Structure formats: C-alpha cells, structure tokens
UniProtKB/TrEMBL annotation:
This is Monofunctional biosynthetic peptidoglycan transglycosylase. It catalyses: [GlcNAc-(1->4)-Mur2Ac(oyl-L-Ala-gamma-D-Glu-L-Lys-D-Ala-D-Ala)](n)-di-trans,octa-cis-undecaprenyl diphosphate + beta-D-GlcNAc-(1->4)-Mur2Ac(oyl-L-Ala-gamma-D-Glu-L-Lys-D-Ala-D-Ala)-di-trans,octa-cis-undecaprenyl diphosphate = [GlcNAc-(1->4)-Mur2Ac(oyl-L-Ala-gamma-D-Glu-L-Lys-D-Ala-D-Ala)](n+1)-di-trans,octa-cis-undecaprenyl diphosphate + di-trans,octa-cis-undecaprenyl diphosphate + H(+); Preferential cleavage: (Ac)2-L-Lys-D-Ala-|-D-Ala. Also transpeptidation of peptidyl-alanyl moieties that are N-acyl substituents of D-alanine. One of its GO terms (molecular function) is peptidoglycan glycosyltransferase activity. The lineage of its organism: Bacteria, Bacillati, Bacillota, Bacilli, Bacillales. PANTHER family: BINDING PROTEIN TRANSPEPTIDASE, PUTATIVE-RELATED (PTHR32282), PENICILLIN-BINDING PROTEIN 1B (PTHR32282:SF11). One of its GO terms (cellular component) is outer membrane-bounded periplasmic space.
Length: 688
C-alpha cells in the first residue's frame, strides 16, 4: 500500500485552493464585464436609425451608369399586420431559437465554428435575427474585429431596450428583399401585389428565402432557385412544428402568381452587367449586399459605355423582333479580364436571367481549342495527321461505344492535319485526339482555363457536351490569346466608401497559367477558321463571315441542336456570342443559326474601327514554317497552298512536300553528253 506524504498532501490542497480562487476571480471578472456591458447598453438606450445613402456606379471612363436609390420602396407595418406564416418562415430559416436567446445563440455559434474549422473556410453563419438587425441598421459592413465588437454591443442594446416582438417587427420592416425593396410590406406588394397581412404560406416561405441572397433567390432573377429554397423552408417549418404535413403539401402545390414585372427597378446602361457586377461584389469580394445598397459606396466598374452601346444596337438589329430566340454577349479585355460589355438577354424587363453568367449550356466545338492546347503540350503539332472518316470509339474497358459524326456527314476519308481539323471543325479528329492523349487531359485543361463547371471524362466532351457558362469559355479564350496569363472575369476595379477611402482594389498582377508557346500555337491555328485557303472536303467554319472581316482574328464557332456559339479575339479584345432557346427548343431555321456569327463579326469590326492592326506576337521558343496544310510538310514553290504555321522549336517539320512536283516526260529528256552515262554505256559507245 502506497503512503502519501503529508508534504505532498499539503501541496495538492494548496494547488486546489489556488485553482478555486483563480476560477472565482475569473468568474467575478467576466461577470463584472458582462454586467457592465449590459448596464452600459441599458444606459445608452435604443440606438437611432441611420439614413441609407445612395451607391453610385461608374463606367471605366468615369461616367455614371447607375445609382442605387434606396428607401424608395420602404413601408413600416405593425407585427400584427404581417402574416403569421411569414413570421414563422423567417424564424425557421434565420433563427429558430429567436424567442429563447438573449441576442446570441451560443450553441449555433459553436456549431458554425466547428463547421468552418472542418471546412477550413467560412461555410456557415451563426448570426441571430437581433444581430442581423443590428448590423443592417447601424454598422459599416467591413469584415473587422472592431465591427464585430460594435455589432455585439448594438445587439445587447437592442435586446435591453426592445422586446422580441419589437425586434422581429423592426427586422421584417428593414430587411432587404432585392430590386430596391426594403421591408416585408413593400416586398409583398412588389412580388405578389398584396399586403404583408395577406400572404399565403407558400408566398411567405418564398419571401423568407430571399434576404439570404436577393441577387440569387429573387424569383425575377432565378425562379427555379427561388422556389427550391421555398420548398426547403417549408420542410424546416414542418420539422419545427410550425405547420402540419397537410399544410406543407398544400403549399407545395400552390401555383405562385407573381406580379407583372413592369415595376422592376429600371437600371441605367447595361442592366445585366450591373446585376453581374453586384453579384461579384457580394460573392467574390465579401461585401454585404446591404452595404452595397445603403452605405453610399462609389463603385468603379470595367464597363466601356461605347462598346456596350454598340453591342446592344447590333444585337437589336441583327435578330428578328418576332423571333423568341435568346442571346448572350460578353466582351473581355484579354490582358486584364476586365469585362467591357455584357448582354444577358434580349429584354431585361421581361427576363433578368443572365445567360452570360448564370446559364450552363453545351459549348459544342468551342471547347476544341482547349483540347488542342492540351494536345500541343503532349507533343501534337499543327502537322499531326489523323484520318477523318466514320469511326466508332470504344471506352470504359470496351463496355461502351461512341460514334460521332461530322457536320452533314462530310468526311475527308483521308488523313488531315490538326491545322485543318480546327479550321474545318472535324469531329472525328477531335475525338481521336481526346482519346489518344487521355480523356482526363481535357478535364484538367478546363480547370486550368478557369471553367467553373466540371468537364466529364467521356469521348463526347471533345465535342462540347459538358455544359459551361459563356463568360467562362470567353475568359478561357482570353487566356489563350494573352500568352497564357491567368485572368478572371472582372467587373469592378475599385470601391470607395462614403468617406472616399478605398475598401477594395482589383489585383493587377497576372501569373502564368499556360505553356506560353503552346498557347500561341493554338491561338494561331484558330486564325484558320477564316482562311478560305484551308477549304478542303468542306469549307472552313468562318467562311460565311470571312469577307466581312478587315483584320486577322482567331476564333472558333460551335453548334449543337439547341445552341449556336461564336467566340473570337484579337490581342485587344475577346468576344463571345451565344444564341438559343431557354426551354430546350431546337434551333431549326438557317437564319437563326447565323445570328451568333453575324453579331460577333459586326461587333468586332465596329469595336476595332480606327484601331491599329495588332498581331499575336510569337514568343521565344517557337519557329514559323511555311507548310502545305494538306499534309503538314514544308511547302515548295509547286504547292498550291502555302501557310505560315508555328511550332515549338524542335518539333517543326523537316520533310518537304513532294506531292506537287512536276512530272517529267521521258521523250523530252535531253541527250547524254559524252561524259555522262554509266561505264557500261561508255563501253558500248566505244565498241560501237
């Protein structure tokens, strides 16, 4: 049996007493702080409301293109005049413990912290309704510890001076519901043409979901996402016993009738651009939408008013007014990623849905430059040959087959070069390339080029069956054209607060993302779509607009049954046009299939009018060779077509084309001189 010494016992007791004493001191200290803060908050009384200030939006030349007038649609109604369904829906999605906490939900805070720690990023919020009310009314929106401390103090002041119903009433009367609308009364009228007291369960659940992200969940922006969030809120309400299962099912079946959108807030120039700009500030720059709307910011954008006006006029005059076809357009500076012009649809008032930044569509053959860039990095050259003929491909260890076809079932039934393949948009060559280098390479290239959607590793993705956003594929072409420097679509260059202090400025440094030589070679091959000298078993894909172009462009078109694309660039500007139908309707009219190329060609010519012609500059490490594009060998004076083509040094062709050497008629051969001929011939002559 161990014997504990009296000395050790005394030491242990002293330690325990010291710990107890320190714990009591810590509790007293914290209690004193909490009591002091509470008394201070009570002594300060209810904080006064601040007056929202208009935020001004500027174009790249300093002209004002928009102003966010706030408070125009703002009405205050008593809680008794707000649908109980709306109150419960808001509490269910925003703060389920609202009536039980004192302004802070500690359990939720711990849960959010653990979720954020697990994800190593901010993935979950823990703000209560009182905290949100405090932040929206009284505070600047910068992400600092000082603001967090002020938010906590204001939260305590609200809880000390108002009861829960008063806080909820204030929150519902001041929260932002999108489109310049503040408060539930204005929102109920704006979306459904009724008072807040008249809202049904289904309408209430939909409106409760909007404040999380008005630019994402407004039914006038994205009806599908809005109604998905509504259904989620209804399910939470049923789980929290706010509604019955029968009420849930009835609300799900209710056909929501939105108010005619004639009262949608009219923006100034480029409304689709302004929406995309707003979204980039909220999602990418972590600036709260409330701050953007109410804090008197000055937002300096990348928009070029002249190019925007040009694009809008061309689109309006190029598409038949009676046609229901939709369109998306975006022009980007390839050196910076700055978005210079953007049109997300044919009529913003009828449909604010942005087909440039929100729609995912199959890009067709416009994906091929990314594939061919990957192939060049794997050893392919513009002279690489493969047969263009009907082909059935097997994959997935022989379990599956894929049989693509060329446009109109035209094939060379012979070998063609990669230079020809991209100009003629040969599908067989593309799929063979895709399969040869490994289907994972195109998926990897998509990530490097900044494509936001994942490209599937199947044979058909070589022909653009994996959906992408127009703005992403246009930005990818910009990366090719600038020599491989990483850019991203940029809408804002600088943001100043009401005091004139810069709170955001775009990063101007661009890192190298691609192999510079391979990027240039791919871009130069893309000029072939407008070169009619490359016509072969079919015409180059840009032949219909080639005669209208006055300078060299690199580009690629793409076509599916429901989509028509044209993307092309110069060193100064990259522009993409998409046309198609929103609901999956096929493009059947020849005239409608021509819209994308027609709009693109007209815009690029007008956009460059008066500008000096600039060529894509070959970097060190590439060499230019005149080749016969039919076989990829060095051209001779006898070749009917000779085209300057670039290669990574050491990969250029060394053989000369011999297909077009003149044939020699034996009867026209000159007589032999006495000194000519073989020894046998000389002996024969001597003997004779």
């Amino acid at each position: 049996m161990d014997i504990i010494s009296p000395k050790r016992v005394r030491f242990t007791l002293k330690t325990i007493r010291a710990l107890i004493f320190l714990s009591i001191l810590a509790i007293l200290f914290l209690s004193t702080i909490l009591v002091s803060v509470s008394l201070y908050a009570k002594w300060q009384g209810p904080p006064s409301l601040s007056v929202p200030q208009s935020t001004i939006i500027y174009a790249d030349d300093g002209t004002k293109i928009g102003e966010l007038h706030n408070g125009e649609k703002r009405y205050w109604v008593d809680l008794d005049h707000i649908s109980e369904h709306l109150q419960k829906a808001t509490i269910a999605i925003e703060d389920q413990s609202f009536y039980d906490h004192n302004g802070f939900d500690y359990k939720r805070i711990v849960g959010a912290a653990l979720a954020d720690l697990k994800a190593m990023s901010k993935v979950q919020g823990a703000s209560t309704i009182t905290q949100q009310y405090a932040r929206n009314l009284f505070l600047a929106h910068e992400k600092t510890w000082k603001r967090k401390a002020n938010e906590a103090l204001y939260t305590i002041r609200l809880e000390q001076n108002y009861n829960k119903d008063e806080i909820l009433e204030g929150y519902l009367n001041t929260i932002y519901y999108g489109h310049g609308v503040y408060g539930i009364e204005a929102a109920a009228n704006y979306y459904f043409g009724k008072s807040a007291s008249e809202l049904s369960l289904g309408e209430s659940a939909l409106l409760a979901g909007i404040p999380k992200g008005p630019n994402l969940y407004s039914p006038y922006v994205n009806e599908e996402k809005s109604e998905q969030r509504q259904k989620m809120i209804l399910e939470i309400m049923q789980e929290e016993n706010y509604i019955t299962k029968e009420q849930l099912e009835a609300a799900r079946k209710q056909n929501l009738e939105y108010k005619t959108k004639t009262e949608v807030v009219k923006k100034g120039l480029a409304p689709y651009f302004q929406d995309a700009m707003m979204n980039s500030l909220v999602e990418e720059l972590n600036i709260d939408e409330e701050a953007i709307q109410t804090q008197g910011l000055k937002i300096y954008t990348t928009l070029d008013p002249t190019l925007q006006t040009t694009a809008e006029e061309i689109m309006e005059h190029s598409i038949e007014k009676k046609s229901d076809i939709q369109a998306g357009f975006v022009a980007i500076d390839p050196k910076t990623g700055n978005v210079k012009a953007l049109i997300g649809g044919r009529n913003y008032q009828e449909s604010p849905f942005n087909r440039v930044t929100q729609a995912n569509r199959q890009p067709g053959s416009t994906i091929k430059p990314l594939l061919y860039y990957a192939a060049v990095t794997k050893g392919f050259t513009p002279s690489t040959e493969m047969r263009s003929e009907p082909t059935t491909f097997t994959y997935d260890d022989g379990k599956a087959t894929y049989k693509p076809s060329n446009y109109n079932d035209y094939y060379a039934n012979d070998f063609i070069t990669m230079l020809q393949a991209i100009a003629l948009s040969d599908n067989i060559f593309a799929v063979k390339t895709h399969m040869f280098i490994g289907m994972e390479e195109l998926a990897k290239a998509g990530e490097v080029f900044g494509i936001q959607t994942k490209i599937k590793e199947v044979p058909s993705t070589a022909l653009g069956t994996s959906p992408v956003r127009l703005i992403d594929i246009v930005n990818a072409y910009g990366i090719l054209g600038n020599g491989g420097k990483r850019i991203a679509p940029t809408f804002v260059t600088k943001v100043e607060d009401a005091k004139g202090e810069v709170i955001f400025e775009a990063n101007k440094t661009k890192e190298q993302a691609l192999n510079e030589q391979a990027a240039f070679i791919t871009t130069h091959m893309m000029t072939g779509m407008f070169d009619t000298d490359l016509n072969d078993y079919t015409s180059v894909t840009g032949s219909s607009i080639a005669d209208s172009l006055t300078r060299d462009y690199a580009g690629k078109s793409g076509t599916t049954s429901t989509d028509s694309w044209m993307i092309g660039l110069t060193p100064q500007l990259v522009t993409g046009v998409w046309t198609g139908y929103d609901k999956g309707k096929t493009i059947d009219l020849v005239q409608e299939r021509a819209y994308a190329k027609k709009i693109w060609a007209s815009f690029m010519e007008q956009a460059h009018e008066g500008d000096s012609v600039k060529a894509f500059k070959p970097p060190d490490g590439v060499i230019g060779v005149y080749i016969n594009p039919d076989n990829g060998r060095i051209a001779t004076k006898d070749c009917p077509v000779s085209r300057l083509t670039y290669y990574i040094e050491g990969s250029e062709p060394t053989e000369h084309c011999t297909e077009h050497l003149p044939e020699i008629d034996p009867s026209e051969e000159p007589p032999l001189n006495e000194d000519e001929g073989s020894l046998f011939e000389k002996l024969f002559k001597w003997w004779d």
